[in-house]
Amino acid sequence: MVQVQSHVMERAADFAQLADRLERMASSIEETKDDATPGKLLQLAEKTRGAELNIAFCGHFSAGKSTMINTLLGASLLPSNPIPTSANVVKIRGGEKAARVYTHNNGVLTFDPDTEMEKLKQFAVDGDTVEWVEVSYPGTMLNEKASLLDTPGIDSTDAAHKIATESALHLADVVIYMMDYNHVQAEENFNFTKTLKDRGKPVYLVINMIDKHIDFELDFDSYKESVEEAFATWNIEPDGIFYTSLAEPDHEENQYEAFRALLEQLIADREKLVSKTVADAAEHLIEEHVQVLRRQNAAERQELENRLDELQLPALDSRDAGRVKNALQTAEEAASELASRVDKARKQMEKELAALLDNARLTYYSTNEAAEQYLESRKPGFKMGLFFSGKKTEEERARRLDVLLADFREKVAANLDFHFKELLSKFPEQFDLRDEAYHAAVYATTIEVTAEFLSSHVKDGASTREYVMNYCSDISNGIKTEYRRAGLGLIDQVAALIRKQTEQESMALQKQLAVLRELMQIHARLGQLSAMEQAARQRLQAILREGA
Questions:
Q1: How many whole angstroms separate alpha carbon 490 and alpha carbon 376?
Q2: Tell me: the pLDDT tens digits for 338-381?
Q3: 127, 150, 407, 494: which is deepest, by most CB within 10 A?
Q4: Are 18 and 271 within 8 A, CB to CB?
Q5: Which residue range or ranges hold the Dynamin N-terminal domain (predicted)?
Q6: What 8-state DSSP symbol labels residue 181?
């Protein structure tokens, strides 16, 4: 006995804890513009706190739902006219006799189930002013913690009826889906049943009015097989199928008693069933809330997506965020390369020019010999012959200068000038440029080796062999300096051409970058919207699963 009491207390504590979490979930989304989900969560919390079992009857208005419920309860509590009977959800539970009508504007109205049932039934069909009808009645299979929900017919032309049905499904632990024998394979049956199964609801199908079956047209086993195949085609696996007749209780195929036994077993397993279905319902309400957020964001999301379609670039799917990101990265790298292209090109050309000048050999043995002779003629006291020595001396000096000049010019022309012009003329081609004026300027470049140039590098008092080597090095470096100066000037011209080319490319690239950056901003905002929706889902799931 003590163990049973302890188990009951533990179960009650579990339901109370789950109800608290549901209330916290409702509170956490009250500040959003979701007007429906918080109320549903609070309804679910109230149901959970009492571990109340709700068995919802859904289906065609002509399938006999109300008659079936009255028969199961042994009392005429619901209207059963051949017209849509309920515009609202009617809840019937066990307990002391009571009837309440929850209205939209006039609060809760109470009725005596014994004397005012007809008036109550009129409220059941009034969908404009009534939100919910609840009846308590003793002496049935139901107790205070077990209820049957009669929902409006799903095939009603009144959209409010369908909304009323769907708005109560979060409270349903089990759904009994009733169909008229002649309307089983209506598409709305498959659609609605699949929706219920996708929500994780236990669904039992009741094919009512089987007394309409004519056996010689089709044997009943074949009929049942066709029903099962039809639902299997839609990938629907009901938890059970019952074939019933209230008009002919003794019909040999009537499974009414088995159906009633199922309901009694469900009621007996109330706590186990409720603990699972409440959690499933809460998960579905989380998804409903996320869908509300998505609808709230729909206009902005659509505007952003429309803008994505407007911003088109060749060979790029603007809706593919990954490809847009890669394209932007590539374009930014190209922009960075453009920004540094002139400096890189200049450094590259200067490096190649320096390598050419450093490797150009301008003085050989003949040059050294001519230089030694020339430098000797520049020494003080140098003279030729005994007679007319002044004239002969000057002539010899001039001759030696001419020899050195001719030798050095030859070396410069062959070992430097030719290669210099060949190198400089090819620089534009390295950068996909053509410019005839520049090409002509390269070949028009003249660096003249003059007598003055040679004499300008002579240092007074120099007379040793070592100095001859130094002198040759000086005139070699000196002429290279002149070529370097001319080369840098030509490189400036190429750099200017590259700069002009780069500016044109940069203008086109900047336009592309502007588009790509806007695309990325749009994708970032779309990502934010999705992230906010996902964060809301995760926050509610954390409360539900962990109480966090």
A1: 39
A2: 889 999 999 999 999 999 999 999 999 999 999 999 998 888 87
A3: 150
A4: no
A5: 55-208
A6: G
DSSP string across 407-427: HHHHHHIIIIIHHHHHHHHHH
Q: Which pair of structure tokens corresponds to residue 357?
A: 């000048």
Residue with tokens 């006039």: 106
Secondary element (H or E) of residue 268? helix 256-268
489, 524, 56: which is closest to 266 by C-alpha?
56
Do 193 and 228 touch, CB atoms closer than 8 A? no
Gap between the Cα atoms of 75 and 184, Å rounded: 28
pTM greater than the 0.85 cutoff = no
Please name which of 498, 483, 484, 481 lies closest in space to residue 346, comparing C-alpha atoms. 498
Tell me which residue of 235, 186, 232 sits closest to 207, measured CA to CA.
186
* 52-159+172-267 carries CATH number 3.10.170.10: no
Strand-pair partners of 313? 316
* Residue 525 tokens, joined: 């905002």
CA neighbor of 42 nearest in space, from 21, 63, 71: 21
Domain coordinates of the chain in residue numbers? 1-51+269-310, 52-159+172-267, 321-530
